[in-house]
Specification:
The complex is a heterotrimer of chains A (813), B (60) and C (710).
Chain A lengths: L1 H12 L14 E3 L2 E3 L2 H12 L4 H5 L23 H7 E4 L3 E7 L6 H7 L9 E7 L4 E7 L5 H10 L8 H4 L6 H29 L7 H22 L1 H12 L6 H20 L7 H22 L15 E6 L2 E6 L8 E4 L9 E5 L2 E4 L1 H4 L5 E3 L4 E2 L4 E2 L4 E5 L7 H7 L8 H4 L3 H25 L3 H14 L3 H20 L2 E3 L2 H7 L4 E5 H5 E11 L5 H12 L4 H10 L10 E4 L3 E6 L2 E6 L1 H4 L12 E7 L2 E12 L3 H9 L3 E5 L7 H8 L4 E3 L4 H13 L4 E5 L5 H6 L2 E6 L11 E4 L6 H34 L5 H29 L8
Parallel strand pairs in A: 17-24, 17-26, 24-25, 26-27, 27-28
Antiparallel strand pairs in A: 1-2, 3-4, 4-6, 5-6, 7-8, 7-9, 9-15, 10-13, 10-15, 11-12, 11-14, 16-28, 18-23, 19-20, 20-21, 21-22, 22-23
Helix pairs in contact in A: 8-9, 8-12, 9-11, 9-12, 10-11, 11-12, 11-17, 12-18, 12-29, 16-17, 17-28, 18-19, 18-28, 18-29, 19-28, 21-22, 28-29
Chain B lengths: L2 H25 L8 H5 L9 H10 L1
Chain C lengths: L5 E7 H28 L14 H33 L6 H21 L15 H23 L8 H20 L2 E5 L2 E4 L3 H36 L6 H15 L14 H13 L1 H14 L4 H6 L1 H24 L1 H7 L3 H30 L7 H34 L12 H6 L2 H31 L5 E7 L8 H11 L1 H25 L15 H12 L14 H7 L34 H9 L1 H4 L21 H10 L8 H22 L9 H11 L13
Helix pairs in contact in C: 1-2, 1-3, 1-16, 2-3, 2-6, 2-13, 3-4, 4-5, 5-6, 5-7, 6-11, 6-13, 7-9, 8-11, 9-11, 11-13, 11-14, 13-14, 13-16, 14-16, 19-25, 21-25, 23-24, 24-25
Classes of the chains: A alpha+beta (813), B mainly alpha (60), C mainly alpha (710).
């Protein structure tokens, strides 16, 4: 024991020079440094040889752990395929090629430095630029002396293997719209600033001080500056308004466009006909604030890409077996009937039948349950599962694009109608009424005045249209929802768009997928049946499970906690069976019943999983592992229940029914043995009964359900990982906050209504003056920005304050 | 006060020029990445490793 | 493809070292002069009894030395260090760099010579006469060309925000300098401003403000955005914010000039604008400050031990204070109190000593060890410097604030019977003497700190080995263009000539667009029939007044406040200045306003007062000018002066330049005779005679004659 402990201490001290992780299995001393694995050491050697060791000075232990990196030489062969290459490259000419890789491993300054010094590793690389926030690197290289495969191999060699998957092959589009918006904003801002410069004197000083000549000049300059605003910055509003009118609808942009046009034309009249100064600065301000709001809106929605489908998860290449020869081909070229080889940790690319090998498929991506399922020869294996253990060979049954799950995916039955139109947002609902009211008042004023003085009537008419420009109205929604989105984002809850918030507010039915959603591997409930474990035994067990990547080993490891690790001689994992280890010349086995030679008495139908443990063939006992609820889920369910119905759907058998019934209480409807299609249908039934359904799921098997539900929330352990397309992505740890989120979405709805009230008061005031024809440019110039700014402040402060009160935010600001 | 015109003229031309510059910058993608550059400037140029570098080149 | 191979190049540290040394050398000189000038304000003897070292002449020397020599060289040192490294390319043209260096030093040297000689245009921060102005323009353009050249040859696609600040500074300062310095030369070292009176004032303060903006602020913001992250070895808090900061600052600064002329004869609306935009400026300025300070969040432990960061923190804070105080001062009611007092002096020194000074020090403390490949010789000394400097700033600023409030309150206090409580201006001055002493002490502290730095830097250099060239390598910018936009950008960059042509064309168009209306639109400055051009002798006297820098202490602009009209007389009208080239409104009242001094005292009083002010007004701080009674003035240039004035549109009768000299002598004789009656013997062509002629004329034109607006 002593000896063991010393060794342990020693190991604890030694952290890998490259990746900074504690060296457990092995501790390589090399070049005066310590490494945790060959991978790390190899990377170091490469950098050392090319004198790129500043890498290690910029940030401490910047590397990525190389233990899991595959050594397979031929795994990039598919990149030699011209079709693939041409699809991956951004640009290509006889001289040079440009490519952009997504490298999830980018995490620190050192990464940037190294990736931007690639040219020192290979002279063919002209330049490489990292975009840190997007974790992307754009590389330009001479394609004479280096090809894509070589490049990727190089990157892999230094520990930055790019993540290339099927979705990279279909080209990405450029977000130029965003840039256009910024131009429009810049123009509006610039012109607004200068127009203010030329208008202020008029407002603030006795006019006679401003010579006639100046007034004229300033007015003309204002006109000059107004033109770009009117004809460039404002175009979006005309377009959208026109579209709305064409489709017999009235959205927020109609009154806006109306206001802008009136402002402009009336100002023109004032300046050129009656020689007044006009309202052009107000127009500039209006556009400036509107566009600012628009930009803000856009920025807050740029959180995550939600258009992810199976392609962003499937590999780009597969290993095809031609007789005994392996060749790596792009997935797109995979034909039915071909034989493929799938190795440890690789994905089953298409529905296929197992030919040979020990298939243990981890369907975590499909079902959320990560304990591998054993499959026997001849069984059909669905695409999307991940093989654990020995390589297996399969015969492809369906092309990847038509697999069972991908079918589910592409099932047009539940392709959601575009939400933007499907559910008219609050703002649009009222903007119709608003517009008509305004028009009515305007005409009323016109008629009223016309009896005495027609010109006065015109003045009042235009004044009403100008002053009631719904700038504030238009901004309250984007800013409130934008803030809500941001607040949610801060607590790891990412919404697809603002409308989701409005829909969440209406939810009255919540449906959970069990596995991986309600239950969490980390929360697995573990008990050791059979005798108590001595500290020595536990330290031995620790030593064994540490070596295994098997999820059950992880759980046992977690259960054992942070205890000393015994020094074991021969540790070996028998994939799909268990772990073998020698300690003090005794054989320790940990794994399946058959592996440990344990005979299970009674019925084998014990719920959950068992891991057996034997020493020298004598069974010491077994670990009983039952999937446990996530932290606080029971309360969550209770909180959700008030006023809503809660359902639980599970793909698994109902062995754990009782467990869940007493965990969640009777109100919750439990359904087991649900196939993805069942789930889908179930949701649709709920909807048919007029429910506003919120579906919470994680796996691909929930994809259908997530799509048909009004609000589909995909729960994921890691945001950057794959998750089925949905309305929102929620970090698993934060699932317990779901009730708060729902409540807060209602709050923000209230805030919007309040801010509407606010801007209505402004408009009321404005109209009060307008109908009397008392609107002066000054009043306009003050009232408009005032209303916009105050609404923005109100919504921003409001949302943040309530978020703070509801505990979704640490501090206000 | 004629000089005001001159000043306005200059100011407008200057400001306009800057606006143009801003557009050029946006167009050329200067502001596509608003984070990495701030880290990039922290890297010191590598000196004193020259000779190592050169013979590495020869070896290639 | 040139782009494909890794290119080797090296950065020139030598030029940085030279600019750095120049910075310190001129800095010490400028501050020393400052301390002397400060001393003269409570100890007139310190004027050393000769015109060259008299306050009126060394004050502009102080400001020029500090702004253009100390701060200027610091900017260049910083730019020449950071720019090549940011763009991964050595400065475009070494020869140009050195031309820039020596050219600039020569300009400063010429300033050191001409200003004490009284060769000045008397426009604040633009005092230098026209030949030097031209030299400045040339050297400045060389600097700009060097930067743009580097930009084109750069290997780093992205232009870091600092670069933008540098370029904006270059362009704007160039334009400002050229337009403000427009003048018609009389002789090699004498010229008359192209603008008169109110207009001259407006141009001057449009320049004056933007000079502060684009010479003392934007370049230093650029430096901050480079050296602060480098010194703290962490990226700037928000790079996005820094970009927004730049663009918003650029768009607002240009407008904020007129606030320097509140309550003057400047049209109200122009003043209002100044105020509005100055107030708006708070936002971007504080954006910058916050960005700077937050960069150090979580690194305060570093700040505690590292003098470089210490200096930076105070510098950025000072920037924040100054940029808050500025808009505050531009508010009319605050300005009513602060204008003409020491508050302004305090304000600018917070900026100069805190922001510019401290950032420069931190930069040098960071650069020296870097370039000499060693550590700083003594952190302890550096810390001592830091504390001396900080104390210096406090001892400087606080007394000035007190002095400002004291004086402005005394000025406007009314006693019983509605009379001024302190009708004698002198009373309000004597109050300030202790404050002035403290201020000088503060300056001394600050200066002594700099001496510590010099020692520290010499020692640092001694223990290290200077690296003249620093090698680096980078691949050239790939020629391939990923977007059409990029293509245009490149095209524009690759053709600097093309670009400059465009720019000039734009400027010309702008100019024309603005000049045309000036012909169409009549001036709205009310002309006053009774206002006549200066007589030749008065003109000479005025030039004397200018060359002795009297404007440094005496304003010529009575604001429309009761206490001012009570004290000085009828408030000043725009129309009274139509023949003032340059305007002499002044910005500080250490002495009383002189706009209505004409006829207030007899000639003999002025004579005695100039010989020794304290005989006429005991306790006065004004330096004595005894030499004026003996120095003979050469009036031969008067003809030329008249001709230039005529060119500028001053209505002297045709061919008046021929008879001007006789008129001059006639008037001189009258004054001499007048002085004789009160027992004063003086030669007619002495300086004093001309000066008296001018002083007696001041503001007399419209005494009890009403303004008529045509």
């Amino acid at each position: 024991m002593e000896k063991a402990n010393q060794l342990i201490d020693q190991k604890i001290e030694t952290t890998c020079f490259h990746c900074g992780e504690c060296c457990v299995e092995q501790t390589l001393h090399h070049d005066g440094k310590v490494f945790c694995c060959n991978g790390c050491q190899l990377v170091y050697d490469v950098l050392e040889e090319n004198d790129l060791c500043d890498y290690y000075e910029i940030a401490p232990n910047p590397g990525n752990n190389q233990k899991k990196s595959s050594e397979r030489k031929n795994r990039f062969d598919y990149l030699a395929d011209p079709e693939v290459t041409s699809k991956l490259l951004d640009f290509q000419d006889p001289e040079e090629s440009h490519v952009t890789f997504y490298i999830p491993l980018i995490h620190c300054a050192s990464c940037i430095w190294l990736l931007e010094n690639l040219h020192q590793l290979d002279q063919a690389i002209t330049s490489s630029r990292v975009n840190f926030l997007q974790k992307k690197v754009q590389i330009k290289f001479k394609n004479k002396s280096l090809d894509l495969k070589g490049l990727v191999t190089l990157l892999a060699k230094i520990g930055y293997e790019p993540a290339i998957n099927l979705s990279d092959v279909d080209k990405r589009k450029i977000l130029s719209t965003d840039r256009k918006l910024i131009y429009k904003l810049a123009v509006a801002g610039f012109c607004f600033g200068n127009m203010m410069f030329f208008s202020l004197p008029e407002y603030f000083s006795e006019a006679e001080l401003l010579g006639e000549g100046f007034r004229k000049l300033f007015n003309y300059l204002n006109v000059l500056l107004a033109l770009p605003v009117f004809f460039y910055s404002a175009t979006d509003y005309y377009r959208s308004a026109w579209l709305a009118i064409k489709s017999k609808a009235v959205n927020m942009d109609v009154p806006i466009a109306l206001g802008i046009i009136t402002l402009f034309s009336y100002s023109m009249f004032e300046i050129f006909v009656s020689g007044q100064e006009g309202y052009l600065d107000s127009m500039g301000g209006l556009l400036f604030f509107l566009l600012l709001g628009k930009l803000y809106q856009k920025k807050t929605y740029e959180t995550l890409s939600f258009s992810r489908d199976y392609t962003s998860y499937f590999p780009i290449a597969v290993t095809k077996m031609v007789r005994d020869r392996e060749e790596v081909i792009p997935l797109t070229k995979l034909q039915v009937g071909e034989i493929i080889k799938v190795r440890n940790e690789e994905l089953i690319p298409a529905d296929s039948v197992l030919l040979e090998g020990q298939a243990r498929i981890d369907y975590s991506f499909v079902t959320g349950e990560e304990v591998p399922v054993p499959k026997t020869k001849g069984e059909l294996i669905f695409a999307g599962g991940r093989q654990k253990g020995q390589p297996i060979t399969l015969v492809v049954q369906k092309p990847p694009s038509q697999g069972y799950l991908t079918d589910l995916w592409n099932n047009t039955a539940f392709v959601k109608a575009d939400k933007e139109t499907s559910l008219a947002s609050l703002a649009d609902q009222i903007s119709g009424k608003f517009t008509f009211t305004v028009l009515f008042i305007a005409f009323a004023a016109l008629v009223y005045w016309s009896f005495q003085d027609f010109s006065m009537g015109i003045k009042a008419f235009t004044a009403v249209l100008i002053i009631t420009c719904p700038c504030a109205l238009a901004m309250s929604t984007p800013f409130t929802l934008g803030n809500t989105l941001r607040i949610f984002g801060q607590s790891k809850f990412y919404l697809k768009n603002a409308h989701v918030v409005e829909k969440m507010a209406k939810v009255d039915t919540v449906v959970f997928d069990k596995t991986g959603t309600l239950t969490a591997p980390s929360q697995a409930h573990i008990t050791f049946r059979g005798g108590s474990l001595s500290t020595e035994t536990t330290s031995i067990l620790k030593g064994m499970v540490q070596h295994s990547v098997h999820p059950l080993s992880y759980r046992i490891n977690g259960w054992l906690g942070n205890i000393p690790v015994a020094f074991l001689e021969g540790v070996e994992e028998v994939p799909g069976k268990g772990i073998k280890a020698i300690y003090k010349s005794q054989l320790f086995l940990l794994g399946s019943a058959s592996f440990t030679g344990a005979k299970i008495k009674g019925d084998a139908q014990i719920p959950g999983n068992q891991v057996f443990f034997s020493v020298e063939g004598i069974l010491m006992g077994y670990f009983q592992i039952e999937s446990g609820l996530r932290k606080g889920m029971d309360q969550v369910v209770c909180q959700l229940i008030n006023g809503r119905q809660v359902h639980l759907l599970s793909g698994d058998n109902d062995l754990e029914r009782e467990q869940f019934e007493d965990l969640l209480g009777p109100e919750v409807t439990l359904k087991f043995n649900q196939s993805p299609q069942d789930k889908l249908d179930y949701i649709q039934r709920l909807k048919a009964h007029g429910g506003n359904v919120l579906m919470v799921g994680d796996g691909l098997n929930d994809a259908g359900a997530l799509k048909v539900s009004q609000v589909g929330i995909a729960v994921t352990e890691n945001i950057s990982h794959f998750s089925p397309s949905s309305d929102a992505i929620l970090d698993a740890e934060k699932l317990y906050q779901l009730p708060q989120y729902l409540r807060f979405s209602q709050t923000s709805r209230k805030i919007i209504q309040a801010s509407f009230a606010l801007s209505f008061t402004y408009n009321a005031i404005g109209i009060f003056f307008a109908v009397q024809g008392l609107v002066s440019p000054v009043l306009c110039a003050i009232l408009m920005p005032l209303s916009s700014i105050s609404v923005v402040l109100f919504t921003t402060l409001g949302t943040n304050y309530f978020a703070y009160k509801k505990g979704l935010k640490e501090k206000i600001c | 006060m004629e000089v005001i015109f001159l000043l306005i003229g200059i100011s407008l031309v200057l400001a306009g020029g800057f606006l143009g510059l801003f557009f050029k910058a946006m167009k050329s993608g200067q502001y596509d990445d608003n984070y990495t550059p701030s880290i990039r400037i922290l890297f010191e140029q590598k000196v004193n490793k020259k000779e190592k570098k050169t013979n590495y080149k020869k070896s290639k | 493809m040139s782009g494909t191979i890794l290119e080797q190049f090296s950065y020139d540290n030598k030029i940085v070292k030279y600019f750095g040394v120049a910075t310190i050398a001129w800095g010490i000189a400028g501050m020393l002069i400052g301390v002397i000038a400060a001393t003269q304000l409570f100890l007139p003897e310190a004027n050393m009894g000769n015109p060259y070292t008299t306050y009126g002449r060394i004050r502009p020397l102080h400001t020029n030395a500090v702004i253009f020599a100390f701060v200027g060289n610091a900017i260049f040192a910083g730019v020449y260090y950071s720019m090549p490294r940011l763009l991964k390319a050595p400065m475009w043209n070494k020869a140009l760099s050195w031309f820039h260096f020596w050219g600039w030093q020569l300009i400063i040297l010429s300033a050191v010579i001409t200003l004490p000689l009284g060769l000045t245009s008397s426009k604040e921060y633009a005092e230098l006469e026209w030949p030097i102005d031209i030299a400045i323009a040339v050297v400045w353009v060389a600097f700009g060309a060097n930067m743009i050249g580097t930009l084109i040859k750069r290997r780093e696609k992205h232009m870091y925000v600092a670069i933008w600040f540098y370029l904006a500074s270059f362009v704007t300062v160039a334009v400002l300098h050229i337009f403000n310095s427009l003048a018609l030369p009389v002789s090699l070292f004498k010229s008359y401003s192209a603008y008169a009176g109110v207009q001259d004032a407006l141009v001057q303060w449009w320049y004056g403000h933007n000079a502060v903006a684009f010479f003392l602020t934007t370049p230093f913001l650029g430096l901050m955005y480079y050296f602060l992250p480098k010194a703290a070895n962490r990226p700037v808090y928000s790079y996005k914010l820094s970009i927004v900061h730049f663009w918003s600052l650029i768009f607002l600064y240009i407008w904020a000039g007129p606030h320097h002329l509140l309550y003057t004869a400047l049209p109200e609306w122009a003043q209002v604008l100044g105020v509005a935009f100055s107030v708006m400026l708070i936002a971007p300025s504080w954006g910058g400050m916050v960005n700077g300070l937050l960069t150090l969040r979580g690194a305060w432990d570093k700040v505690r031990v590292d003098p470089v960061l210490k200096f930076m923190v105070v510098a950025v804070t000072a920037y924040g204070m100054a940029t808050f105080e500025g808009p505050l001062l531009s508010l009319k009611n605050v300005n009513a109190i602060a204008h003409y007092t020491d508050w302004i002096v305090a304000h600018v020194h917070i900026g100069a000593l805190g922001w510019n000074g401290f950032l420069t020090f931190s930069m040098l403390y960071w650069l020296w060890p870097k370039m000499w490949k060693t550590n700083i010789y003594s952190v302890k000394l550096a810390n001592t410097h830091f504390w001396l400097g900080t104390l210096g700033i406090l001892f400087y600023a606080l007394p000035m604030y007190v002095a400002a409030l004291t004086q402005s309150l005394m000025w406007k206090e009314f006693g019983e019977g509605g009379r001024l409580a302190y009708p004698n201006f002198l009373e309000t001055v004597i109050e300030l003497v202790p404050m002035y002493m403290l201020r000088a002490f503060g300056g001394l502290l600050y200066l002594s700190g700099v001496f510590l730095m010099v020692y520290n830097m010499i020692k640092t250099a001694a223990q290290g080995t200077f690296q003249e060239e620093e090698a680096d390598e980078a691949p050239a910018l790939a020629k391939h263009v990923s977007s059409k936009g990029e293509f245009w950008h490149r095209k524009w960059e690759r053709k600097p000539v093309f670009f400059t042509v465009l720019a000039t064309v734009a400027i010309v168009i702008g100019g024309v667009v603005e000049i045309v209306p000036t012909i169409l639109v009549k001036s709205n400055v009310p002309t006053i029939s009774s206002v006549k051009p200066y007589t030749p002798l008065e003109l000479q006297g005025r030039d004397l007044y200018i060359s002795n820098g009297c404007v440094g202490c005496h304003s010529q602009m009575i604001r429309p406040f009761r206490h001012e009209t009570e004290r000085y007389g009828e408030y000043s009208k725009a129309g009274e200045y139509v023949y003032d080239r340059p305007f002499l409104w002044g910005s500080k009242r250490t002495g009383p306003d002189l706009h209505r001094v004409g006829g207030k005292y007899p000639d003999s009083w002025h004579y005695q007062h100039m010989v020794d002010p304290r005989t006429m007004s005991p306790g006065s701080l004004m330096p004595p000018y005894p030499w004026m009674t003996t120095t003979i003035m050469n009036h031969d240039d008067i003809a030329a002066k008249i001709r230039v004035m005529q060119k500028l549109g001053v209505p002297y009768p045709e061919g008046y330049d021929q008879v001007a000299k006789e008129d001059l002598q006639k008037q001189a004789q009258e004054i001499v005779a007048n002085l004789k009656t009160s027992g004063v013997e003086v030669l007619p062509d002495t300086e004093i005679v001309a000066l008296i002629a001018y002083l007696q004329r001041l503001g007399t034109d419209i005494k009890n004659t009403a303004v008529d607006n045509r």
